[in-house]
Amino acid sequence: MAAMRYRLTFVAGLAIGYVLGTRAGRERYEQLKKSAREFSQNPAVRNTVESATQQGRDVAGKAFHSVSEKVGDRVPDSVADRVRSLRERGQGGPGGAGDDWGTSNT
User: Fold this and answer.
1) In whole angstroms, what is the distance from residue 45 CA to residue 42 CA?
2) How many CB atoms lie within 10 A of CB 8?
3) Ramachandran region of residue 96, left (φ > 0), alpha (ψ -120 to 50) or beta?
4) Looking at residue 74, what DSSP letter applies?
5) Helices then strands (H, E): number in the chain?
6) Each residue of 30-69: pLDDT tens digit?
7) Closest CA to 80 of 67, 94, 90, 91
8) Cα(90)–Cα(82) distance, rounded to whole angstroms?
9) What is the mean pLDDT of residues 9-36?
10) Are 103 and 95 a contacting pair, CB within 8 Å?
11) Of the spans 4-8, 35-39, 87-91, which averages the highest pLDDT?
């Protein structure tokens, strides 16, 4: 009989803890989601991300150029064409449409 009472008390405690935890958890989750959205929409953050993306493309293009000089014709044409198209798209200037990675050049 005591074991049964212990189990019922334990299950009731779990149920109450779950209900209270999910309410508080959902509110906290919504707060974190809102903060993350506000952070990602901040113009300074967006500019920094896009600047870093552009710098990464520039470095990748320079790396491809120096590597392709060393390896010559061993670079597959498909890779060379892809890098060339990305380089040309990056030189199009700001304000263009989004690229293959979902970012824009603004």
Assistant:
1) 5
2) 10
3) beta
4) G
5) 3, 0
6) 887 898 899 989 999 899 989 999 998 888 888 878 877 7
7) 67
8) 12
9) 81
10) no
11) 35-39
